[in-house]
Write a structure and sequence with these properties.
With 754 residues, this protein is α+β, with helices and mostly antiparallel strands. Among the domains are: 98 residues, no CATH class; 261 residues, no CATH class; 106 residues, no CATH class. It is built from 25 helices and 21 strands. The strands form 5 sheets. Strands 8-9-12-11-10-13-14 form a 7-stranded mixed sheet, sandwiched between helices. Strands 2-6-5-4-3 form a 5-stranded antiparallel sheet. Strands 16-17-18-19 form a 4-stranded antiparallel sheet, with helices on one face. Helix 9 crosses helix 10. The radius of gyration is 32 Å and the shape is globular. Belongs to the FHY3/FAR1 family. One of its GO terms (cellular component) is nucleus.
């Protein structure tokens, strides 16, 4: 194809020469793939649930046509958090080989290449509809400038010479039985009922696989995994692990959790994700991981497990082991993938826990076949489906689902039938009564999945897998701590002027307060009507009927809403907030500001109240304080001079202290506290408010320090008071007004602000 005959996609973008090659081709040299025998042909507008699903589909199509494909180019990293939004798949013969100079400056020898500038391709673009990402085909061409292979030839391409996990297991078993490679191949040909030499892999592939088995003995690796856990237990007695051996003295299951993970579970183990969709090829075992969200909306690690088999007994063992790590405390809700054995295990081991299934796991099965079945009606069906998914009442869901099935002719469609049978595990009308801490939102799901992928990357180092996972978890905790500090340093912007908003800003974390603030901004758009004593009907001002039913009993400080958002997320809904403001309530009752979302740290996880603190935590604390000092000192020359003077004094004082004889001793902090210190809050009109709880003389503002100005010709910086408290010893105040001694939230993050 020539330049003038470039292929255009649906969105108007061309597959440029840079994408496929630089040499023009003659039209008579092009060969159109034979599509008459191909049942599944890509088409513009086709949808896929993920990049991998699109790749597998196009790979199957290419194999039938007589060529293979490769991932050619990614595009679209044009926004924070958006990631890749465009992907091109091309023929394996697309593009041209490039000569690259070697280390000594000489050009590489001209090796023969199969690339000839073929411009067959499929382009997919990421689009987000109803908060669920999908990949749409926006460009497709199946025109080649080379001969296509026959079916018995295409299977020999490297892309299709693959060995499935089941075949790998059988080959390993045959090798232990002493069979030769040729005997293995002949036996597998008979088992699969294929002709001689028609397996999807060759003798060379099997020999390479056997060589990898010899290089990595997985049984010994698994035993080494137990040794790693024992080593971690010796270092830290609070490290938890358990394992099970089978009758042949082979590792069957193993699970572990770190000391910090068990502490996090105590505070945030009410809602969990148990992801079991991955395998560790290094150990040939199923990998499961328990994760959740903390009070700042960030992923936190609770533990992981390796299972030899995927059955109910294995999952039951893993769930019982987790409960043993956390003193039998079962979560309120548990999110998993769609697995029948895991479903049965949860029902047996955690009968009081609400088990739910990610809707995205279920819809993945529908994204491939349903668009073809519905055709042009698929978009309308999807909009209708998500409307039903977000309904509030179970009765409305049952009624509307029946109408939807009849409207689109899905009564006999088996996937829709099975989806309805599982409705209590995925449909929000059946889940709103249970607390999920935001785990069902798409953005949180992506954050958790990214964290899991980092954990999976640790399998590249088998000799220290457990330690490597610990390093990733520690890095995640440190990054979360740093991000929390940055969020707290930012001024909280009050947008409504409501006393309820000011009160919530003093109690909730920035993450939780942001969620509540969204509801406060929407509350004025709703009308509140008293229909009975303590009963209100709240509906949008554009609605003539319907709405939500809110019960508000002031004497008991009891409030509830029929939408059940508080039960579902722990954040009050706009309907409740509307009733509270109408009834002249200026503060949210304490029981509706859950401790889980409050801006406090439990004593069990507070590093400053722990007598045995790790040296790395102290270094991290000092680095945070130094970072805050530098950022504040660079504002003015006066600040910089004062900072240099004070740092020099502190440094001299530290040098005068006696040096340790046997290393650094742990420091125990035991400072009294009488007030809750909170960040500055900035209203929309620019007025800065210092929000505190407690007596006014015991509080201080954590925002940006005001510049000191000389008064009456006297330099104020020289008239500083010195704090005599051993935890502080800073200048500018005395022991009676010491900010550190007057804080209930004494922790590493707070000291980092000073």
């Amino acid at each position: 194809m020539s330049e003038g005959n470039s292929m255009a996609s649906e969105n108007g973008t061309d597959l440029s020469q840079d994408d496929t090659g630089t040499i023009e081709e003659n039209p008579e040299e092009t060969i159109l793939s034979q599509q008459t025998s191909v049942n599944l042909v890509p088409f513009i507008g086709q949808r896929f649930v993920s990049q991998d699903a699109a790749y597998e589909f196009y790979c199957s199509f290419a194999k039938q046509c007589g060529f293979s494909i490769r991932r050619h180019r990614t595009r679209g990293k044009d926004g924070v958090g958006r990631g890749v939004t465009r992907r091109d798949f091309t023929c394996h013969r697309g593009g041209f080989p490039q000569m690259k100079p070697s280390d000594d400056g000489k050009m590489q020898r001209n090796r023969k290449s199969s690339r000839c500038g073929c411009q067959a391709y499929m382009r997919i673009v990421k689009r987000v509809d109803f908060d669920v990402p999908e990949w749409h085909v926006t460009g497709f061409s199946n025109v080649h400038n080379h001969e296509l292979l026959k079916l018995n030839e295409v299977r020999l391409l490297p892309a299709y010479c693959s060995i499935t996990p089941d075949d790998k297991t059988r080959i390993c078993m045959f090798a232990k039985a002493g069979m030769s490679v040729r005997q293995m191949l002949r036996l597998m040909e008979l088992e699969k009922g294929v002709k001689l030499g028609c397996l999807p892999f060759t003798e060379i592939d099997v020999r390479n696989l056997l060589q990898s088995f010899r290089n990595v003995n997985r049984d010994y690796d698994a035993i080494d995994l137990i040794a790693m856990c024992k080593k971690m237990k010796d270092k830290n007695p609070n490290f938890q692990y358990d394992f099970k051996m089978d009758g042949h003295n082979r590792l069957e299951h193993i699970a572990w959790s770190y000391a910090s993970s068990v502490q996090l579970y105590e505070a945030f183990g009410d809602a969990l994700v148990f992801d079991t969709t991955h395998r560790l090829d290094s150990y040939d075992m199923l990998f499961g991981i328990w994760v959740g969200l903390d009070n700042h909306g960030m992923a936190c690690f609770f533990g992981c497990v390796l299972l030899r088999d995927e059955n109910m007994q294995s999952f039951s063992w893993s769930l019982k082991t987790l409960l043993g790590f956390v003193n039998g405390k079962a979560p309120q809700t548990l999110l998993t993938d769609q697995n029948i054995w895991l479903k049965e295990a949860v029902a047996v081991e955690m009968p009081e826990t609400k088990h739910a299934v990610y809707i995205w796991h279920i819809l993945a099965k529908l994204s491939d076949s349903l668009p073809t079945f519905l055709g042009s009606s698929y978009d309308d069906w999807k909009a209708e489906f998500y409307r039903l998914y977000n309904l509030e009442l179970e009765e409305d869901f049952e009624e509307e689902w029946s109408k939807m099935v009849n409207k689109y002719g899905l009564r006999e469609y088996k996937h829709i039938t099975s989806l309805y049978a599982l409705r209590t595990f995925w449909a929000l009308p059946f889940l709103r009564h249970y607390f999920f801490a935001g785990l069902l939102s798409p953005c949180q799901s992506e954050a958790i999945n990214a964290f899991i992928q980092r954990i999976l990357s640790a399998q590249s180092q088998l000799d220290r897998f457990v330690e490597r996972v610990a390093e990733i978890v520690e890095f995640n905790d440190r990054a979360a701590t740093k991000q929390k500090m940055q969020r707290k340093l930012q001024k909280i912007c009050l947008k409504t002027g409501s006393p309820i908003e000011s009160h919530a800003a003093t109690v909730l974390t920035p993450y939780a307060f942001g969620k509540l603030q969204e509801e406060l901004l929407m509350a004025p758009q709703y009308a509140s009507l008293l229909v009975d004593e303590g009963c209100f009907q709240v509906k949008h001002h554009t609605e003539t009927d319907g709405g939500c039913k809110v019960i508000w009993i002031p004497c008991q400080e009891h409030i509830s809403c029929s939408c059940h958002q508080f039960e579902f997320s722990g954040i009050l809904c706009r309907h409740v907030l509307r009733v509270l403001s109408t009834d002249n309530c200026f503060q949210i009752p304490d029981q509706y500001l859950p401790i889980r979302w409050r801006n406090v740290t439990s004593a069990s996880t507070n590093p400053l109240r722990t007598t045995t603190r790790d040296r790395s935590e102290k270094i991290q604390l000092l680095e945070s304080m130094a970072s805050a000092l530098v950022s504040e000192s660079l504002e003015t020359e006066e600040r910089l001079d004062v900072a240099c003077e004070q740092v020099a004094m502190v440094l001299n004082h530290v040098k005068d202290l006696p040096r340790p004889i046997h290393g650094m001793d742990d420091i125990a902090y035991a400072c009294p506290s009488h007030s809750l210190i909170l960040p500055e809050v900035e209203d929309t009109d620019g007025i800065v408010q210092s929000i505190t709880v407690g007596n006014s003389h015991e509080s201080f503002t954590l925002g940006k320090l005001k510049e000191r100005r000389p008064r009456d010709g006297v330099d104020v910086s020289r008239k500083r008071r010195h704090c005599s408290e051993p935890c502080c010893r800073h200048f500018g105040h005395d022991a009676s007004s010491c900010p550190i001694m007057g804080s209930d939230t004494l922790n590493a993050e707070l000291l980092g602000y000073l």
